């Protein structure tokens, strides 16, 4: 039966786009989460919308678990396949179909790389704000599936704030259209809102319509250096309390600063206990006024010094170093566990102190950085999974981090999704009723349970 089905898949996507070799399949057995890989039975690479819809229908007809994969950069196990399942690659569905300068939208296929899209938009004098740390390789389909965030989330929001419309295949391979290319649209159920962040469990994206905005005419970046981590974290709350909303307001602790500087040689102050990287944008006059206020607040809150970038090259160098934080930390030990603890902004100081306490309690190395302005911290545990005793402490520390974030009114994930890694915690944040409601939706839309099974709500 499998041989006959493979022949059918070859007719649909072409023989060269059906991967059966174990080495090829192993490439798509894992993602960026620290979870065990699962070897798929087959990997398929459709090159057209028609082929994608037919693949979905065939998988459903034969009860084959289907996991869609962009670049596999997600950090919660969202693209780890099911045993005996099929991985569907989107990297051949990579067209920017339209960039509409008059109506400020773009239409793309799911396999378009985020950074390439942002550059194409910028070349027309427009702006697509969502900027996940993996943007150089991550795809827009993956961004929508995970509701990806990024450094600019504080001022500009996350991916869902820019999704105007979706075309996706349901489990039967029927094309569903949601949303529109208009600014306002209240036609029918908000199916697009349901699909954003659904991690491939409710449908398979075919085309995405994204909102664009004008490029801000001016921007200014600065680095505030602190000798005390608590003062740095309290400064975050102070800036927001003074009704200033920067584009980015990033936090790095000393361990992360030293790791990044060793990796990037960007001129970061390795003796600082913590630093804040801040950028404001908008009209030139407003930018100057906001930058002056932020600098004054940082000094008032105890910053040892504030360095203001003198030109675009200096600004870009610092931001490139910040984007390299995960890469830098991952060089320290064999296993890197990047978490996604997110709390109300006013609770950032308490969360940072708790992470320090947890590191001491479980005798672990934890580097902390993240989008402090929107409450989204990334405590990064550096370990070696082969050390069983230490790995047990890592698992206990993760539980403690999640418990603390929830106790502070926070959430399990600000931008990394739930996937497999956090599904067992979801009821703790929500409710039993929430889980049952979600499972009823899943059962109605995917009766055979083939769409990315096990993710978010378990099985």
Structural features, described:
This protein is an alpha+beta fold and 459 residues long. It has helices at 2-13, 22-27, 49-61, 114-122, 140-146, 153-156, 191-195, 229-241, 254-264, 284-300, 312-323, 325-329, 348-361, 388-407, 426-429, 432-445, and strands at 18-19, 42-44, 66-69, 86-89, 96-100, 105-108, 126-127, 163-169, 175-179, 204-211, 213-214, 218-226, 248-253, 274-282, 305-308, 335-338, 365-371, 376-383. A seven-stranded antiparallel sheet has the order 15-12-14-13-17-18-16, with helices on both faces. Helix 1 (2-13) packs antiparallel against helix 3, helix 8 packs antiparallel against helix 13 and helix 13 runs antiparallel to helix 14. The mean pLDDT is 95.
How much of the sequence lies in strands comes to: 15-25%
Are there runs of 5+ residues with pLDDT below 50, and where? none
The tally of helices reads: 16
Distance between the termini: 26 Å
- Across the major sheet, the strand order is 15-12-14-13-17-18-16
Mean pLDDT: 95
Helical content (DSSP H or I, runs of 4+): 25-40%
Number of domains: 4
The secondary-structure class comes to alpha+beta
CATH topology of the largest domain: Uridine Diphospho-n-acetylenolpyruvylglucosamine Reductase, domain 3
Total beta-strand segments = 18
**Rg, alpha carbons:** 22 Å
């Amino acid at each position: 039966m499998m041989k006959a089905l493979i022949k059918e898949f070859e007719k649909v996507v072409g023989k060269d786009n059906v991967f059966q070799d174990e080495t090829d399949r192993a490439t798509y057995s894992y993602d960026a989460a620290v979870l065990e890989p699962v070897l798929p039975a087959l990997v398929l690479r459709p090159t057209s919308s028609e082929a994608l819809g037919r693949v979905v229908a065939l998988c459903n007809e034969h009860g084959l678990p289907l996991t869609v994969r962009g670049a596999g950069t997600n950090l919660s196990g969202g693209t780890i396949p099911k045993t005996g399942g099929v991985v569907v690659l989107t990297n051949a569905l990579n067209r920017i179909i339209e960039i509409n300068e008059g109506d400020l939208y773009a239409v793309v296929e799911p396999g378009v790389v985020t950074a390439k899209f942002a550059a194409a938009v910028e070349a027309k004098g427009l702006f697509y704000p969502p900027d996940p740390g993996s943007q150089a390789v991550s795809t827009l389909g993956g961004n929508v599936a995970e509701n990806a965030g990024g450094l600019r989330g504080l001022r500009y929001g996350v991916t869902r704030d820019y999704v105007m419309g979706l075309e996706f295949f349901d489990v039967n391979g029927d094309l569903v259209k949601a949303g529109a290319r208009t600014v306002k649209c209240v036609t029918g159920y908000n199916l697009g809102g349901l699909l954003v962040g659904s991690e491939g469990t409710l449908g398979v994206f075919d085309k995405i319509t994204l909102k664009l905005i004008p490029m801000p005419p001016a921007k200014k970046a600065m680095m505030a250096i602190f000798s005390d981590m608590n003062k740095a974290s309290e400064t975050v709350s102070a800036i927001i309390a003074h009704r200033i909303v920067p584009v980015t307001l990033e936090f790095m602790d000393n361990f992360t600063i030293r790791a990044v500087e060793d990796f990037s040689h960007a001129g970061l102050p390795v003796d600082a206990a913590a630093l804040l990287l801040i950028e404001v944008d908008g009209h030139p006059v407003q930018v100057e006024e906001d930058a002056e206020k932020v600098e004054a607040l940082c000094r008032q809150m105890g910053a040892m010094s504030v360095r203001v970038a003198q030109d675009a090259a200096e600004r870009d160098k610092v931001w490139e170093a910040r984007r390299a934080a995960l890469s830098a930390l991952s060089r320290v030990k064999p296993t890197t566990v990047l978490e996604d603890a997110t709390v109300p902004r006013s609770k950032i100081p308490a969360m940072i102190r708790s992470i320090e306490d947890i590191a001491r309690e479980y005798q672990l190395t934890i580097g902390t950085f993240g989008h402090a302005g929107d409450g989204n911290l990334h405590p990064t545990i550096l370990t070696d999974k082969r050390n069983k005793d230490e790995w047990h402490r890592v698992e206990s520390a993760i539980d403690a981090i999640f418990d603390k974030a929830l106790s502070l009114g926070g959430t399990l994930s600000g931008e990394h999704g739930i996937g497999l890694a956090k599904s067992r915690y979801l009821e703790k944040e929500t409710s039993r009723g929430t889980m049952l409601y979600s499972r009823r939706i899943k059962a109605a839309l995917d009766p055979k349970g083939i769409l990315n099974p096990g993710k978010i709500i378990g099985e």
